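Duplicate of #3305? Posting structure anyway:
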């Protein structure tokens, strides 16, 4: 339970940090790619911040139920996301050798 709570906090912090990074670079995106893409980056940043806050505010049981509901509604997408996550974890471990 303690490890799961720590994992939840780390996940929330990572998503929040990524959102801040995207937000901090939105002006650069405006300059290099145009305001439209900068606005997309700002929108994505807000969504990441909101998601991080939702994860942090929920209990583990609620997160588990949300995950089960997501898999019931979109099994194909869930399998795809799991495959991508597995690939990323495998790359992480293989690059640390």
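Output from current build:
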């Amino acid at each position: 339970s303690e490890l799961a709570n720590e994992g939840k906090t780390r996940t929330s912090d990572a998503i929040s940090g990524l959102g801040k990074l995207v937000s901090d670079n939105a002006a650069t995106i405006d300059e290099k790619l145009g305001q439209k893409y900068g606005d997309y980056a700002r929108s994505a940043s807000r969504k990441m911040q909101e998601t991080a806050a939702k994860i942090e505010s929920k209990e583990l049981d609620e997160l588990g139920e949300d995950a089960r509901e997501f898999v019931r509604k979109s099994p194909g997408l869930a399998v795809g996301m799991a495959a991508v996550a597995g690939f990323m974890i495998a790359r992480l471990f293989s690059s640390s050798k």
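Confirmed duplicate; merging threads. The helical segments are 2-24, 26-33, 35-57, 60-73, 75-95. The radius of gyration is 16 Å.
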